[in-house]
Each structure stands twice: as structure tokens, then as C-alpha cells.
Design goal:
- With about 350 residues, this protein is of the alpha+beta class.
- It is about 45% helix and about 15% strand.
- It is built from 15 helices and 9 strands.
- The strands form 2 sheets. A 5-stranded mixed beta sheet has the order 5-8-7-9-6, sandwiched between helices. A 4-stranded mixed beta sheet has the order 1-2-3-4, with helices on both faces.
- Helix 1 crosses helix 2 and helix 12 runs antiparallel to helix 13.
- It starts with a helix and ends with a helix.
- About 0% of the residues have low confidence.
- It comes from Prymnesium parvum.
- Pfam families: Glucan_synthase (PF02364).
- This is Glycosyl transferase 48 domain-containing protein.
């Protein structure tokens, strides 16, 4: 919601009358959370599920002006609806803003992209920023969004920006994941943008030209098995239809990475040169020493073996699948039995 606060600050700096500020914010910013299972959570017999639904409701009432919840409603007569919920800012009463009947269950492909596709009809405005549930914002960065939107000129359809991995202090595995993300979010993104000009769409927090995307294949590809990585195929689609993708470094958002062994396994090692350029030689040397002392080299060898095994398996079997690693904050240690059962074939047995 810091985008809304940033708009308020800018409006007051530009001497917009105080009585018109909230209306201006509401006209320029809307936060749509697409939670396809909200209807199931609300009616579940499980106390934990109902607690999750109540937590969502609490957020809706806390931010009635801007926050909307999109979900899929399945009625007893086997009808499906895309529903957008809101809260009246004045009376604080529940509101069903839109309810669109669907021809059937909309989740026919991969769950995450289908979730985006069913909810995009409820968004408004010219631009759409796609955010994951594990991302955060900062007020100082939110003030830069207006400058970021100025990048949409000519046939530029996607504008990406950097990510700050705030979960790096969560342990050795979290540091490994943050280091690999640092490389992908800086040097690789820069190089793919220029001089290669081959940056596509790698997820969030990319900002889309929404009006163009809605008439040119959408922001996410959802075919099961084929589009396991739904984001990059949307980027392919954008470029093949004549759109351009750029990357801006003057703005960033926060991001928390997976911190369990299973969730983290599969990323790249960072380069000392990149850290030197970004943060200075002393910090670069210290960070790499910490990684070396924590045996990151052993972890990344194992990660490479894991990726190689599954890549070879996909070539042999002609099949790929989406694995949901989750976005939770891991505070429990994994048992050796579970880790061995998961990775024994990958790391120790040659098939």
C-alpha cells in the first residue's frame, strides 16, 4: 500500500486540495490480490483455513479504498464465478463488486498463471505491475514509480526493475539463494537488456502495458506441461508480437526467497566482480569469504547435479512439471530422512 501513500505525498507536494487527495489516489492505484482458494478457505471445516480467510478479510477492512480480493466461487449447482470483493470505505460493509459467470472451472492449466488470467479482468488503468506474495515495497522506491512509468514509450511493453533480497540474513541457505538472485537481478539482467536485447519476462515485479497485453495474449501462459515457466513464455509472446522489454535499475522492490534446502536448491553462485562494482571491494571480499566458509561451493555443486539430473530426465521422458516450493518463512529444520528420500536418486544414484 506504499504506492498509495506515495501518491498522497506527491499530491500534497503539488498542492492538490486535501478534499480531493483520496479520490485522486483511488483513481490512480488499485491493489488486486488474486486468491483463487479464498472461497474454499472461508467455508472450510479446517480452523486454520478459516483463520487464513479471516486474515484476508482483516486486510480488506484495513485498506478499504484500494485493496480488492479476486477469487473463484464454486456454487453447489456446479457453477463457477470470478468474483471481486471490496469494502465500502464509508460504511465498511462487504461489497461484491463484480461476479462473472464462467463456462466451467477456469483452472485448466497451471494454477499460478490461470489464477492471474481469471483476475486480470478486474484490474483497471493503463499499466499493471505483477507482484508475488513474497515481495515487499519501500516508500522511497514507491515515489519513483511515476518515473518508471515514463519508460513506456514507443513499442516498449514490459519494464523490469531490481529486487532487494531482504531474507539474506535468514541463514546459510538464505544467503546462498540471495547471492544467486543478486547475480540474476543485476549483471545477467543488464547484459540481456543491453547489448544482447534479449531480456524477456522473468516474473515479478515487471510492469506491463496492460492495454496492449490484454489484446495480445495476456501476461501469463498457462498450458499444462508446456508452459511450466509461465512468465518467460509471456515474454517470448511479447517480443514475437513486436514489443520491447527494458530493465531499469533506479528502482527496486523487496523480495523474500525460499530458505529451506528443498526450496533453495537450484540457483547460481555470485561473482565477486559484480559485488565489487555494486558495493565496494571490502564488502565483496567479506561476502565471498562468508560463502566459502559456509561451504557454499559444496551446496552449488549439489544444486548443479540436481538440475542436470532433472534436465536429463526431462529429455528422456519428454515431460516437465511445475513444483510449488512455497513462499513461507522456514523456521523448522528438515529431517535427514526426508532430505535423503528426496535427493538420494538425484545426488547418489545413477539411473
Amino acid at each position: 500500500m506504499l504506492y498509495a501513500e506515495a501518491i498522497r505525498i506527491l499530491a500534497r507536494l503539488e498542492e492538490v486540495p486535501e478534499t480531493e487527495v483520496e479520490a485522486l489516489v483511488a483513481s490512480k492505484f488499485e491493489y488486486v490480490v488474486t486468491c483463487q482458494t479464498y472461497g474454499q478457505l472461508r467455508t472450510s471445516a479446517d480452523l486454520l483455513d478459516r483463520w487464513k480467510a479471516n486474515s484476508i478479510d482483516e486486510l480488506r477492512h484495513r485498506y478499504p479504498n484500494n485493496l480488492r480480493i479476486a477469487y473463484i466461487d464454486h456454487s453447489p449447482d456446479n457453477a463457477y464465478f470470478s468474483v471481486l470483493l471490496g469494502v465500502d470505505p464509508e460504511t465498511r460493509e462487504e461489497q461484491v463488486l463484480f461476479k462473472v459467470k464462467l463456462p466451467g472451472d477456469p483452472i485448466v492449466g497451471e494454477g499460478k498463471p490461470e489464477n492471474q488470467n481469471h483476475a486480470i479482468i478486474f484490474t483497471r488503468g493503463e499499466h499493471l505491475q505483477t507482484l508475488d506474495m513474497n515481495q515487499d515495497g519501500y516508500l522511497g522506491e514507491a515515489l519513483k514509480l511515476r518515473n518508471l512509468l515514463e519508460s513506456f514509450k514507443g513499442n516498449i511493453r514490459i519494464v523490469g526493475c531490481r529486487e532487494h533480497i531482504f531474507s539474506a540474513a535468514g541463514g546459510a541457505l538464505a544467503a546462498f539463494a540471495a547471492s544467486s538472485e543478486f547475480v540474476f537481478g543485476t549483471s545477467l539482467q543488464r547484459f540481456m537488456t543491453y547489448p544482447l536485447c534479449v531480456r524477456f519476462h522473468y516474473g515479478h515485479p515487471d510492469v506491463w502495458d496492460k492495454q496492449w497485453a490484454l489484446s495480445n495474449g495476456g501476461v501469463s501462459k498457462a498450458s499444462r506441461t508446456l508452459h511450466v515457466s509461465e512468465d518467460v513464455f509471456a515474454g517470448f509472446n511479447c517480443v514475437m508480437r513486436g514489443g520491447h522489454v527494458i530493465y531499469q535499475e533506479f528502482m527496486h522492490v523487496g523480495k523474500g526467497r525460499d530458505m529451506s534446502f528443498i526450496g533453495v536448491n537450484g540457483f547460481e553462485q555470485k561473482y565477486i566482480l559484480e559485488l565489487w562494482v555494486e558495493r565496494g571491494f571490502v564488502i565483496a571480499l567479506w561476502e565471498n569469504c562468508k560463502l566459502a566458509l559456509s561451504c557454499s561451493w559444496l551446496f552449488f555443486l549439489f544444486a548443479s547435479q540436481t538440475k542436470g539430473y532433472h534436465f536429463a530426465s526431462a529429455l528422456r521422458q519428454g515431460h516437465a512439471g511445475y513444483i510449488a516450493t512455497g513462499r513461507g518463512y522456514v523456521i523448522e529444520t528438515g529431517s535427514f530422512v526426508k532430505l535423503y528420500a528426496t535427493f538420494a536418486t538425484v545426488g547418489f544414484v545413477t539411473v
